[in-house]
Amino acid sequence: MIKTINWKNNTVVLIDQNALPSAEKYITCKFYKEVISAIKDLTVRGAPAIGVAAAMGAALGALQLPSLPPEQFRRKFITICDEIAQSRPTARNLFWALEQMKKCLDGAICSGKRDLAKELVNEAKSICLEDIEINRQLGKHGSPLIADGDNILTHCNAGALATAGYGTALGVIRAAHEQGKKLHVYVDETRPILQGARLTAWELQKENIPFTLITDNMAGFLMRQGKIDKVIVGADRIAANGDTANKIGTYSLAVLAQAHRIAFYVAAPLSTIDVSLKTGAAIPIEERKGEEVTHFRGVLSAPKGTKVYNPAFDVTEAKYIGAIITEKGILKKPYHVTIARMYKGEKCS
Ligand code: MRU
């Protein structure tokens, strides 16, 4: 299994996603500030993986705090969490994981635990392990949506690399493949930084799942040619009404899929849903540096000084989404109702 992120001897070991696919190398973070840099520069990326990294980064920060009375320890720990929270704005999982860590600390203080850092390390490790199990469950719920012989289009990387393991959108594909269904995946290269070409293609090749790489602007033509049966993508943040932020280009795929009557699915853990936001209009969209667009793997590909707009995510309105696949089951429209029901603990279909 791909080891995206691992807690080892009080360090955080990350597969360097910027080096893939040319090299499989790992970086070791000893300090929480190194984890912040790794999140910012996309060494670790993908919403659930960012969440796990944030939790582990916070645990590293806690380990480095001197021994202090609980309230002072708490204040310093919250400052560390606030700093980690500044690393990337869009993925809900990052904020969710930091909230889990703060809850863990409060619980540990209330129950008079002496070694608070140890409690936080254990919490970060269990967030990591739970993420893998969540993805397996999500795969189990989503795989019946995939038929034998399907050609599936996916965008960006929502695989093992984007999570602690197994993946969300790729987890559904992986589960269907494990059940013996014959599948073929079309992989959008995902401009500007090629998470599809570099990461999704790398994962599918390792798993022997048949795939074909296309550039993002080819998807409509392939749909028109009848080459695509389904689209499955991951998510960075889902609002209470089902509007979904995911890698830039996802919205165009959703509109194209509707125009061609192709099912469009989102696969994401519940930790990606942000019920505090009524609609996707409130989701903060990260804007990244222009060089990602003007340069191709470090080589200038536009005239020097070219003005760039580089939003890293877009929002797909709920009306385009056929189902949201979660670890607790499949959510259908109207999402403002099914999401609210899910948060009240009722089961979905
Ligand atoms: O900028 P990135 O690579 O972190 O963006 C990742 C995505 O948009 C993924 O599709 C999303 O996080 C889902 S990952 C399971």
- Give the number of domains: 2
The CATH top-level class label of the largest domain: Alpha Beta
What's the gyration radius in Å?
20 Å
Largest β-sheet summary: 7 strands, mixed
The rounded distance between the terminal residues' Cα atoms is 30 Å
Classify the oligomer: single chain
Proportion of strand residues: 15-25%
What does this structure look like?
This protein has 349 residues and is of the alpha/beta class. It has 2 domains: 5-136, Four Helix Bundle (Hemerythrin (Met), subunit A) (Up-down Bundle), CATH 1.20.120.420; 143-343, Translation initiation factor eif-2b, domain 2 (Rossmann fold), CATH 3.40.50. The chain has helices at 32-40, 47-63, 70-85, 92-110, 116-142, 169-178, 195-207, 219-224, 250-259, 291-294, 335-343; strands spanning 5-8, 11-15, 26-29, 151-154, 184-188, 211-214, 230-233, 237-239, 244-247, 263-267, 273-274, 295-296, 299-300, 313-316, 323-326, 329-331. The protein has a 7-stranded mixed β-sheet with strand order 6-5-4-7-10-15-16, sandwiched between helices. A 4-stranded mixed β-sheet has the order 11-8-9-14, with helices on one face. Strands 1-2-3 form a 3-stranded antiparallel β-sheet. α1 (32-40) packs antiparallel against α2 and α2 packs antiparallel against α3 (70-85). The radius of gyration is 20 Å and the shape is globular. The two termini are 30 Å apart. The mean pLDDT is 97. It binds 5-S-methyl-1-O-phosphono-5-thio-D-ribulose. 5-S-methyl-1-O-phosphono-5-thio-D-ribulose (MRU) is lined by residues 45-48, 91, 156, 158, 162-163, 168, 195, 234-236, 246-247, 312.
